[in-house]
Amino acid sequence: MIVSGSCHDRPMNSTDSPFVTIITLLIGLILGLAIGFILWRKGASNGGASSTELTQVTEQLNAARAERDLYKSERDNAMADTKLAGELEAMKAAMEKLQKEAGDADRRRIEAESDIRAQVRAMSTHNESLVAQTKAIAGALSNSATRGKFGEAQLELMLEEAGLRKDIEFTAQRSTTDSDSSGIPDITVKMPGGTKLFIDSKFPFDRFIEAHEAEDGEAREALFIEHRKDLAKHVEILAKRGYHESQDSPDFVILFVPFESLLTEALRVDPLFLEKAFKLNVTIATPTSMMALLRTIGNVYSRNAVARNAEDISKSAASFMKDLTRLHERIIKVGSAINSLSKAYAELIPTAESTVKRAAAKILSYGVSGDKDKLALAYPDAPAEVRELKNSELAAEDDFIDAEEVKEDE
Question: Would 257 disulfide with which of 231, 262, 287, 402, CB 3.0-4.6 Å?
């Protein structure tokens, strides 16, 4: 019973297995001693006493077995509790990690929603500003004169971007000064060769903007048809001005519309609209086609400028070569003169030494005063002969002109 009590008081863990084995061995040893003692007493006493003792030993043995089974059951329960506690700790850690990830995901979602709301507000503000600006532009373009100035300003920007200069390659609001035409074109482009290209920048806009404001589909289509008619009427008016009949015109005048959709909607309603306008000697151009035309004109001007520059360069080169030939001739003459002077100087030195210096030395020997040191100085050597340059000795021998050869040709 002492062993049993100590087993209950001791904590249960996985390291109790050797201890349990030792207890079991001790119990078996005690039971063996008890059985041996009983058998020894059996021979000395009567059978009734031995039976009682055997019963007691058996009861003790059963109690010991029950105690062992109870200890094993408690040990197994403790191990199961420990395992369950470990699993619960792992599950708790997993739940905490899951909660943290869910919190991070929720925070990112809130931030994303906040950014989206800010972008939506910015887009809404921008859209309102765009609508206001569009309405302001539409209101400004409701006047024909304003539309003409707007188209003319846009056209001038395109002309300058194409490399054409105002009052040089193009002019604005200037009469054709031709009896065959009337009116003043918005833009007159001077083409290379003397031809002039007349451009009108006014355009109909009222029905077009009304069509875009209409909510009903049939009403919108009817307004687009009216827009096509307004554009056709403007083409007829432009044709009557006779710009294309001017002697400097290439037999047509250009109607510039600053929005692609102005022409697109007219062509959708009437696919032959451009052909009909061209029969009246009017060509309708949008920013895309107009820029292509103006760049072509600018390129022609650039090529003509290059050709003119090439002619000027050729003239300048010929003049330079003529001057270079004259310089070469004079250098030869100076060199020849230097050589002649050097030769005369070399011939003069022996004469001076044999006459002047010798006579001076003789006079000084008579006691006449004079500067003996200066008379003792030797005459300098004659300068070296200047070497004449030939064409074969020059770096650009193929391009150099010999002055002597030119002189002989003359």
Answer: 262
Token output for 264: 């697109």
Query: Of the ranges 131-140, 141-150, 336-345, 396-405, which is most confident?
Result: 336-345
Most confident option among 67-76, 167-176, 324-333, 346-355: 324-333
Range ranked top by mean pLDDT from 58-62, 76-80, 146-150, 165-169: 165-169
Domain ranges across the chain: 2-97, 141-285, 304-409
pTM, entire model: 0.46
CA–CA distance, 192 with 166 (Å, rounded to integer): 15
- CA dist 376 and 253 (Å) reads 99
